[in-house]
């Protein structure tokens, strides 16, 4: 068993935040050349980053199983 029972959610938090912000910036840069493609990259990136931030709140509300 893992030492930290919430390790999986913590991994997803950082994957979503950093991946989403990377995709957002890449979409903004791409929008200078092709607006449609830029928006199609930036919007899901922003959504992923927001989901990561929401998961931080969810993680803070979870109870630890330590006695």
UniProtKB/TrEMBL annotation:
Transmembrane stretches, start-end: 12-33, 39-58
Superkingdom per UniProt: Bacteria
Alphabetical UniProt keywords: Membrane, Transmembrane, Transmembrane helix
Stated name of the protein: DUF4175 domain-containing protein
């Amino acid at each position: 068993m893992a030492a930290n029972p919430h390790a999986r959610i913590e991994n997803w938090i950082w994957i979503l935040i950093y991946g989403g912000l990377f995709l957002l910036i890449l979409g903004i840069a791409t929008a200078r050349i092709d607006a449609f493609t830029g928006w199609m990259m930036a919007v899901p990136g922003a959504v992923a980053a927001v989901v990561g931030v929401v998961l931080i709140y969810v993680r803070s509300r979870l109870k630890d199983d330590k006695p």
